[in-house]
Amino acid sequence: MGGRVNEDLIKERRKCTFDIKELTHIIDCGEENTIKRKQIDNYILNIKELWDDVPEEYLSHKERYENAIKKAFIVLKVLRQLHTGNIQITDHRTPTNVYSIQDGIFRNVNPLLIHIGLFWSTIAAQASTEQQAEWLQPDSSMIGTYVQTELGHGSFIRGIETTATYDSTTDEFILHTPRLSAYKWWPGGLGNTANACLVMAQLYINGTCHGLHIFLAQIRDFDTHKPLPGIKVGEIGPKMGFNTADNGFLGFDNHRIPRTNMLMKNVQVLRDGTYVKPKHDKLTYGSMLLTRVTLISDLAYQLSKAATIAVRYSAVRRQSPIKSNEPERQILDFVSQQHKLFITIASSHVYRVVGLWMWNSHKRVTADIHEGNMGQLPELHALACCLKAISSRDASALVEQCRLACGGHGYMMASNLPQIYAYTTAAVTYEGEYTVLLLQTARYLVKFWRLAAEHKPLPQNFAYFEDYIKKNFEQWRNSPEGIIEGFKAIVAGKTKAAYDTLQCNLRNGREFEEAWNMASVQLTNASEYSTISRNDIEALQSRYEELLALIRPNAVGLVDAFDIRDEVLCSTLGAYDGRVYERMMEEASKSPLNEDVVNESFHKYIRPVTMKNKL
Ligand SMILES: CC(C)(COP(=O)(O)OP(=O)(O)OC[C@H]1O[C@@H](n2cnc3c(N)ncnc32)[C@H](O)[C@@H]1OP(=O)(O)O)[C@@H](O)C(=O)NCCC(=O)NCCSC(=O)/C=C/CCCCCCCCCCCCC(=O)O
Ligand SMILES: Cc1cc2nc3c(=O)[nH]c(=O)nc-3n(C[C@H](O)[C@H](O)[C@H](O)COP(=O)(O)OP(=O)(O)OC[C@H]3O[C@@H](n4cnc5c(N)ncnc54)[C@H](O)[C@@H]3O)c2cc1C
Predict the structure, then answer these.
(1) Engineered SS bond to 197: which of 133, 147, 280, 504, CB 3.0-4.6 Å?
(2) Cα gap 59→112, rounded to integer Å
(3) Is 298 near ligand 1, meaning CB less than 6 Å away?
């Protein structure tokens, strides 16, 4: 769409007091990354076949998938070319990698998301060197997915019922789905796309169960794509979002795979059935850990999209004067609107920085694990659980807040805010449900509280538990350091309260697991335990309002710095030129209900009723 940029946006950009490009480079972790990102953006976004004539909302469930899969294979080809050209495209130091560009191309989810994001990375992390050499060929025929969750079990994965029984006479595993609740359910790309999968199953050797292990299984013929004998596979149907991801179901009827298809980097089954244990019980859960870490950056990116749309719209939208004799104001001038939006910008930066820090920590801990040192794994797991849970829940709430901040127009699919919300809120559940993950972190904290309560030595990271017990916390200070101290006090106080409840339940004769369950609300809910006073809260509030006023002139600059192209934002409300009403009208004209001046339903259903008495 051609035409002038909206006048209000022009003025906002003139008001900006900082160098937008400099902030973009910081977000991208360096100017060279910005340049590379823009090159990839230009390359991919110029591929004509990737753009739709008809908005995807008007397609049927089946058409949506077929359209998405067409685009997915164009993108896959490009990814392969870029890989061959040695361009690092999956660097999570930047939230704006090629993966993010796909948000624009699909407006929904790439059906190959799990193939690219989880299938290959799990093989790379969990398969032996020989297996990797065989399976990670660039021209592989495999299109894979990650198959863990079952109809009956998602959170409690030890309860998974699919079995892999070793048959030493044929040197094979027999994959089997013993009952309906053991059907795999949810894996992305499984419904129609994948011909192979990594499946989590209980390993049995000579009648002994060794727990969950990962197996590579072909499920469809590479040539005809028909399900192999003994495989029942299909798609699970429409969902709140993720509708192009062809999430699927899968059952095995004594399906045989070679012994060498178990992922054997950390654990092995030998030809004679000897089981060689891993160095750490939970290494098999490594893919979940990695995905939880990468999700934090992804959620930061979703927040930056929502903030860009809502801030630009709020600069363009004028409604109500503040004083009755004045013209109508930009809705961005309302302090309550600033409160809704600026926190989203800030949260995006927070999760970007934390996501990067977690990504680097994951790299470091993985390198240690390679050297046989598992010491840092529990802390990384506890942090990843908590941060994934909190960032997904916060991001969903903030995206919804941005949508509401756009009033009625935020309810339009063409604003793209409903799609961003549907995508973001899924992350509260997948890769470990919110409460379940918080309880994993609580388990970790309670362990250290027990040490503190028993006056045993604590690692430096937990010294504040001891400070809390000795009442060594400083008086509240309105400064970043003071706020961090306050948070430490809250964590310590909350952990203590939960621990005390646990102990009380145990003293009353409850078994530990029952006592834990009874304390679980305390284990997940925060309370105020810090030394903050009413006066401090009032001072914090007025500082917050001062900051809103300081940020106001830079609001548009701050979201421009996210540097998200219109083709990726896909929003009538958030485009760079701010031509909101023109775009809305243009999108409305694409509705099939506007194709005929009089829809044929009028003649079939309306007219016979409205004209009945007149005929
Ligand atoms: C952890 C559970 C809840 C419990 O497990 P269980 O075996 O029962 O354990 P317990 O006996 O309770 O013991 C707990 C102890 O184990 C330790 N532990 C647990 N997990 C780990 C771990 N991962 N690592 C290390 N240690 C671990 C724990 O600390 C305890 O130790 P201790 O005894 O106290 O000492 C478990 O059941 C669980 O994890 N449940 C959740 C299940 C889950 O997460 N399922 C996920 C299924 S897959 C999925 O959902 C996929 C979704 C689609 C995602 C698509 C979106 C991806 C977007 C990202 C984009 C990235 C793509 C980028 C592309 C590119 O550019 O590359
Ligand atoms: C969009 C999407 C994509 C997905 N993609 C994949 C995929 O590619 N591969 C795959 O294998 N899976 C996938 N999943 C499945 C996903 O991982 C699970 O749905 C998720 O782990 C939650 O498990 P659940 O559905 O069993 O929830 P449940 O555990 O049944 O949760 C229901 C409720 O019970 C509570 N609850 C459960 N256990 C406890 C407990 N111990 N203590 C306290 N409360 C508890 C929860 O907090 C929640 O409130 C996907 C899911 C979605 C929504």
Answers:
(1) 147
(2) 20
(3) yes
